Amino acid sequence: MSTLTPDLSTLANKNDDREKLTFFGWFANIFRAIKSVSTGMLITIKYVLSVKPVTIEYPEVREELPPNSRSRLFNDVDNCIACMQCSTACPVDCIYIAAVRRDKEAPKLKTDSGSPIKLDLKQYTIDTALCCYCGLCTTVCPTECLTHTTDYEYAQYTLKEMKYDYLDAEVRAWKHRIVK
Amino acid sequence: MSNNFSVTVTDEEESLKTQLLTLNMGPQHPATHGVLRVEIKTDSEIVASATPYIGYLHRCMEKHSENLDYRGIIPFCDRMDYLAAINTEWTYVMAVEKMLGTEVPERAQYVRTIVGELQRIASHLMFFGVYAIDLGAFSPFLYAFQDREFILRIFEELSGARLLYNYVWIGGVWNDINDSQLKRIDKFVNELEESVKKYHSLVGENSIFISRTANVGVVSEEMAYQYGATGAVLRGSGVDWDLRKKRPYGIYDKLDFNVPLGTGEKGQQGDCWDRYMVRVQEIFESIKIVKQCLAGIEAGPVMGKVPKNIKLPEGEIFYKSECPRGELGVHIISDGGKTPYRLKVKSSCFTHVSMLPEMAPGMMIADFVAAIGSIDIVLGEVDR
Question: Are B156 and A8 in contact (CB < 8 Å)?
């Protein structure tokens, strides 16, 4: 296959142009080796004796993430006005929203920030297996109901289970959930 | 029937002929830094030829970008060079800003430079640790990761993610940096200077390391020019070329730093040791830049005025900047719509991978591992 047929005898000679070993050179070699190895060993011993462990034993000890860490997405559906801006901004299209117009006779609802809710949310699902956690959906949300939480332990056994429907009562209760 | 199995040797020389052994390295190999497959033809220990095969991490980013708005492409830019995501997205964002004519606030420029240089330090620390592993030393990797961890933690506080930040936005940066974070960065870079000196004396001055890397994988100045090498590979061969100096972007024209070059101190100019040394010295230069930025940063906004729906004017732009691995070029062609008509990325790692077939002949296999490590490739950027 290869058209390249190098002359192997010249290839082998390439590595043989090392300096000739003399009597003093031999001792100098030993001295240099001991010196450089002991420099390294000194640093290692210093670390062994003086530096505290920086690792944590994960399942027993859990680290708290910084407050604006981008982990599990949570949508507070009571404040959602179904404006679809998050699903438009999403670069991987992992937010599925379905909403119908609210009845005129039904009692008027408002979000916490005061904007009227004109659409009834029927489905708000995020496929967290598809999500790339870029955070673009949370920045466009006008009522700030879609947020990233600092909870990072929500893996499931199947891909289907990774689709979280935020109208579901169980997922709704996860607003402040952090696995401890 | 017996004719099929009979061996007729006419020539004695023919029967003693040696053959080249084909060896597959990768795509799942710890020394290839990702999913690179290299087909090596060897004569016992000596490599006769090497052919890299790429494409195992192709995610169709360029084509996918044609269906995304200009803000939505930034997360995909992160995923190209995942070890230096800030620099990658900064390059893309600068190209869009240049075309859009956006003014970036002064503070945002300083914040970008600080995070960009911290990312360069993190990337070079990663190189330092992984290169030592390639050559058989394990503990430097842990030391380097301890310092890299601080940088990732600061980035996590700033942007929310540890590797794929989406922090540099069109018109500025996402979140402002606060004073306590600046103070912690200042303390960190002062300590880092000492510890990198220590790490260098542990690895770079070690005589085993020197004999593994000096005179190995030599890239001559001419070869670097011919292949179009950039970054530390080009500077390791002694060519004084750094986009931050030659064509300053951001606030780099205000900053004072040197461009370290390979000198051939331990062997020939352009060998693996030179490339290692250029990167270690670049850490010190980055520390210098971060210190100057920390002294010069002033209060102000971090986001400029950007329209809500970004539409670039019709036309095209090619913009490049100095990333830790070399020059990254972004070519955007716009037809005036919400999405780019075409986005092409020129990756430095791809250039460096294509240099392997010329570097390889005559090397030992173990030296070839050292050569792959020294050009510091990230396969996410090669395949995109």
Answer: no
- Decide which of B202 and A17 is more confident: B202
Residues of B in contact with A69 (CB under 8 A): 156, 160-161
pLDDT along chain B (384 residues), means of 10: 53 73 80 80 86 87 89 89 90 90 89 92 91 86 88 89 88 87 90 89 83 85 89 88 88 89 84 90 91 89 86 89 90 89 90 89 86 87 86
Contact yes or no for B68 and A43 at CB 8 A: no
- Give the number of C-alpha atoms closer than 13 A to the C-alpha of residue B279, restricted to the C-beta side: 32
Contacts of B143 in chain A (CB under 8 A): 47
* Calpha distance B112→B98 (Å, rounded): 16
Any idea which residue has 């030179």 for tokens?
B274
CB-CB under 8 Å, A15 with B157? no
Instruction: Give the alpha-carbon dihedral of B97, B103, B108, B109, to 10 degrees.
Output: 80
Cα B18 to Cα A7, B21, B81, B103, B366, distances in angstroms: 12, 9, 42, 66, 22
Pick from B74, B161, B201: which is nearest to A39 by CB?
B201
**What angle do the packed helices B139-159 and B179-203 form, to 10 degrees?**
160
Residues 6+ apart with CB under 8 A from B192: B121, B147, B283, B287
Closest CA in chain B for residue A31: B207
Residue contact A11–B43, C-beta within 8 A: yes
Residue with structure tokens 């070059």?
B261
* CA distance to partner chain A, nearest, from residue B251 (Å): 27
Contact B205 A39 (CB under 8 A): yes
> In terms of C-beta density within 10 A (0-12 exposed, 13-18 middle, 19 or more buried), how is residue A163 classed?
middle
- Tally: H helices and E strands in chain B: 17, 8
| Residue A28: predicted pLDDT | 86
Distance from CA of A88 to the nearest CA of B (A): 10
d(CA A15, CA A10): 9
Which is more confidently placed, A171 or A124?
A124
pLDDT in the model for residue A13: 46
What is the predicted pLDDT for the residue at A72?
85
Cβ <8 Å between A43 and B46: no
The answer to whether ipTM exceeds 0.90 is no
Q: What is the pLDDT of residue A7?
A: 52
Q: Are A113 and A121 in contact (CB under 8 A)?
A: no
